[in-house]
Amino acid sequence: MTRSLSRADNLIHQFDTVLRTLVPHAATPSRVSPATSAVHDEPMSAEERRHAAGLMRINHTGEVCAQALYQGQGLTAKLPEVRGQMEQASQEEIDHLAWCDERLQELHDRPSLLNPLFYAASFGLGAAAGAVGDQVSLGFVAATEEQVGHHLEEHLVKLPASDHRSRAVLRQMAIDEAHHAQLALEAGGSRFPAPVKFGMKLMSKVMTASVYRV
């Protein structure tokens, strides 16, 4: 028999998720990084390496935000099946987080110093969306994953041509994010209107501009 989790158990689990998200190298992926099967990188100049690291730092912070979003939504979601879906998607986002972290280490760089700030903001947005209702919460997931997909496509073009390992990671992430968006809509998520998506895009631009170097 499985034991139902107490409030204390849930708080411990939530705290563990925060630590695994914000502490560098703490996230443990359930899948091997796609970079391991990629063609070996060709030599990159110092400027190309810094540029690749900046892009991967943005993607890493995006996964920090995704973890916070799913955690906040799971905390306030009304239906058990919706909470379960949030937890499943969150586990796949942990993979992305760990893959980006591994790639940053390979590029001799670090995650963004602004991650705690973006985590807190995303957690608040997720909790608020979940409190409004599961339909809005799932719609927010779909709209967010759509934004992430656009960023990943842009980064695949912007990466140095010789950075095959980063490109392999982003390709798999793009597949997973599209799947998350589809599941959220199929589960009853509402499609957000264009003005709301535009506002989300502006917020995303603030994040990417600040995290690229900091």
Topology (SSEs and partners):
Elements: H1 7-22, H2 46-76, H3 80-106, H4 115-132, H5 134-158, H6 164-186, H7 194-211
Features:
mainly alpha; oxidoreductase
Q: How far is the first residue's CA from the last residue's CA?
A: 48 Å
Which overall shape is indicated by the principal axes computed on the Cα atoms? Answer: globular
Residue-averaged pLDDT, rounded? 82
**Residue runs with pLDDT of under 50 for 5 or more positions:** none
Q: How many beta-strand runs?
A: 0
Helix and strand pattern? HHHHHHH
The helical percent reads over 70%
Q: Given the helix and strand composition, which structural class is it?
A: mainly alpha
Oligomeric assembly: single chain
For the biggest sheet, the summary is: none
Determine the strand fraction and express it as a percent band. under 5%
Number of helices: 7
Q: Kindly provide the radius of gyration, computed on alpha-carbon positions and rounded to a whole number of angstroms.
A: 17 Å
Membrane topology: Peripheral membrane protein
Subcellular location: Cell membrane
Organism: Halomonas pelophila
GO molecular function: monooxygenase activity
Descriptive overview:
The chain is mostly helical and 214 residues long. It has seven helices and no strands. The longest helix is centred in the first third of the chain and has 31 residues. It holds the Pfam family COQ7. Its main location: membrane. It is found in: Cell membrane.
